[in-house]
Amino acid sequence: MTHGEADTKATTTGVFDALHPLAAAQHPELLAPPVFEALHLVPEAVVFEIDPDLSDTEVMCEALGLPLHVMGNAVLVAGRRAGQERRCCAMTLGDRRVDVNGCVRHRLDVRKASFAPLEEATGTTGMEYGGITPVGLDAKWPVWLDESVRDVEWLCIGSGVRRSKLVLHGSSLLNLPGAQLVEGLTR
Question: PANTHER family in the record, alphabetically (predicted)?
Answer without folding.
Answer: CYTOPLASMIC PROTEIN
